[in-house]
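Entry 14. Ran structure prediction on the chain below.
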Amino acid sequence: MPSKHTFSRLVLLLAFLTCLATTVGIWRPVTAQSDQPGTPQPVLGDRLLQTVEPAPPFSEPQRLPDVVIPAMPGTAQPAATTRIFLPFIGQNSSGIPTSVPVEDVEESGASATPAWNPELSVNLRVLVLTATRDDTTLGAIRQILDFVGVPYDVWVASEQAGQLTPDRLANGTLGNYYAVMLTTSNLAYTPDNGVTWLSALSAEEWANLWQYEATFRVRQVTWYTFPTSDYGFSSALPGRDTTVTPLSLTLTPQGRTVFAHLNPSAVLSVRYAWVYPATVPSGDPNIQPLLTDESGNVFAATRVYADGRENLALTFSGNQYLLHSMALGYGLLNWATRGLFLGEFRTYIHPQIDDYFIANDIWTPETPCGTNLDLNPSGVEYRMSAADLQAVINWQQARRAEPTTRQLRLTMVFNGVGADPISSGGGMPANDDLVALTQAQHHHFYWVNHTYTHLLLNDVTIPASRFRSELQNNHQVARRLGFTNYNRASLVTPEISGLNNPVFLNEAYRWGIRYMVSDTSRPEQRAPSPNTGYPNPLQPGILMIPRHANNLFYNVSRPEEWEAEYNCLYTSFWGRALTVNEIIDRESDLMLGNLLRGDISPLMFHQANLRAYDGQRTLMTDLIDATLAKYNQLYRLPIRSLNEHTIGQKLAARTAFNQSGVTATLTGNQLVVNVRQGAMVPITGICSRPTNPSASVERYNGQCTLNVTMASGSSATLVFP
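Output, structure tokens:
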């Protein structure tokens, strides 16, 4: 029977490493993956191996530079604390958030309650203030705003000295921004390579900012703060580096309302960061601790000022690669915007399993490192059995019984030749039991065309009719087996081939293909911005869906095989051979990052990874289980699994939204939305449906998203109840 040989490129996605950032004492881990430029490696078959150099030796992170800024005006007053919006969930009588509802899609939601100055107007746009462009906290802020889709401006204060004037912040009674985020509390920078440190904002600019926030009632988040009394802290203990000994933080009751997307019992590990333990005054209702350690030290707090300003401060560094920055980002955004913003946030997992029905070559533990499997095949292949499929069904059903993974559904990417008997020209093995069980249990999965024979599609001399027959014959297998969760518009090409072949692309489009996956390990195949796709350059009618590869290689089916091949590649990188559990721990960290960021891109696996090596467990389910265990310890948000064509539709909608030039202005309880180009505009925080234009409401963990379909040059007025 046919076998899938070497994948076009072995993708290297290594677990998080760390190196010292050059600004503001923030650690930035290096992700060793093939989307990064790497050093040439030997070729195994047709797979080009790439990696990055190991991280440099650690040195002590720098503390926040000691730069004094003007004292903030105002003191706390109890009356101001009433303006608190809980964006996600209800509370019980003790004020503790309720658990994740069992039927998430059916639960009711509440609209955000506008709390900005009702006599003034504000644009739904975030102002991000940073001292320099290379402040690594800026990456963490941009990451959450970009994945959600929130419009924002970055103000690089050191490059625009003295220009943060009142007219830059507001135009009379119209505020340009309805939320503010600072990378650091004093926006310190050095103009002379560390000899002197200055605040990038002048005293007058600080005053302008605070006056604007007070007048328009705009909240501010300070992502990295030295704990001073201005930010609500009563004392600060010596700071420390958490590289060797991570800091474990838990949520206070107030923290559970602000970070309502987190598991209420989450233990947040802060590592590779400089941290400042602090205390807050007891009994002050306008200063609320959010995150504390086991000794009661405070590391995040909100403060309400007498002039109406509100600030949320974190006393530890971060960046877009660190787990704690990713985990807190959505809560910080929700607090700053009071749960009302353009865009949406969801968590996704879309495992796609290639080569279903055919076999994969196997890297055996005896295979010498450096072996070219094209020239020296091991002679060992593996094709799933009915027992493997049943084990996977059992696993998926068990995960679907859990609150956060009720919608989990795998996608099988199939080659129909392995489902047709040899007598009819197929390659189904004698005494096969996989096809019959697949036909009986197909409803458990999504299904995607992978061509009939796994034909590589790069050759422009192959007749168009052959390409059509590959698609059509596989489509006929799907119809014969009765696949219901299948859409002929979706395709995963064998070894991600054919993306630059105009003969194939044109024929695929004529046949009906509208969505195909690309490979994010190749720079030219990545999304232009988070959660978007891109039209194929040669056939714009086909949208490319960026798909993530990983280090669970296509040619391993048991732990000893994975361990052997992984250590052939990475022993020198890590300095020692790793056990399979250590490999899973590193790889699950990368997959966890995709979940925490709200990344919609699907994940690549292969059918050999679904071998039930002990009768129940598989390598892929081991890896996903490790990822989900880490996710559930941190997040409470339901994870969604979509089919490929729905992913493509969402990517296309997000691209149109990004290009729409959307603006939204809030005045009292009325929101006016305008677009230059037509798009579906998601607005999180509104539950009521307008009669015109057309719109729908989607509820996710108690938070509503209103999706408004708008024509080019149109306007919509939405009224809060």
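Confidence is low (pLDDT under 50) at residues 5-61, 75-108. Will compare against last week's run tomorrow.
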